[in-house]
Design a protein that fits this description.
Elements (H helix, E strand, L loop, with lengths): L1 H15 L5 E2 L4 E11 L2 E8 L2 H7 L4 E8 L3 E5 L19 E5 L4 E5 L9 E7 L4 H4 L5 E7 L2
Antiparallel strand pairs: 1-2, 2-3, 2-9, 3-8, 4-5, 4-9, 5-7, 6-7, 6-8
Length: about 150
C-alpha cells in the first residue's frame, strides 16, 4: 500500500515539474523561436517539440525561395527530407502554422486555413502577421534563423 502511494506521489510530482516547455493546443513548445525575414518584414515562429522540428533546426540558418501554393500557403523545397519520427495521419492546418509536408519534402507556411493533409507535420506557429505572407504575390526570398 505504501509503495502504491509513493508511486502515485512520485508520478504526480514528475508530471507537475516543468522542463521549460509549454503546452499549447498543437503540442508542447520547444522554447526555441525562429525569425523568418522577407521583404523588410520579420515573423517570429514558436517551434513545437517534435522530431521533425528538431531536425529542421539542423538546417538553420537557411535562405530559401518561397512560392505560393493553393492561395493558402507559401512553400519551399528543402535540401533534404526531414525526420518525421513515427509520422502520423496528418493535420488540418490553420493560418499561422509553420509546417513540413513529408510526401513532397517541402516547408509550408500557411497564411490561410486549408483542408486536412496526410503527412503534414506542424513544426510551429507564427506569433502574428501570417497574413503578410498572403500579400506576397510573386516568388520571394526569405531567411530563416534561430532567434538568439
Amino acid at each position: 500500500m505504501i509503495r502504491k502511494i509513493l508511486f502515485t506521489l512520485t508520478a504526480a510530482l514528475l508530471v507537475s515539474c516543468s522542463t521549460g516547455a509549454q503546452e499549447t493546443g498543437e503540442g508542447v513548445l520547444m522554447g526555441v523561436q525562429l525569425r523568418m525575414v522577407f521583404d523588410n518584414e520579420a515573423l517570429i515562429i514558436d517551434l513545437y517539440d517534435n522530431p521533425t522540428a528538431r531536425d529542421f533546426l539542423t538546417l538553420l540558418p537557411l535562405t530559401v525561395t518561397m512560392e505560393d501554393y493553393a492561395a493558402a500557403e507559401k512553400i519551399t523545397y528543402l535540401s533534404r527530407r526531414l525526420d518525421t519520427g513515427r509520422g502520423g495521419p496528418g493535420n488540418t492546418p490553420s493560418s499561422g502554422n509553420f509546417t513540413y509536408y513529408a510526401p513532397w519534402g517541402n516547408l509550408a507556411v500557411f497564411y490561410r486555413g486549408q483542408g486536412s493533409a496526410g503527412g503534414l507535420v506542424i513544426l510551429g506557429t507564427i506569433r502574428s502577421g501570417a497574413e503578410r505572407l498572403g500579400r506576397m504575390r510573386n516568388n520571394f526570398t526569405a531567411a530563416i534563423e534561430v532567434v538568439e
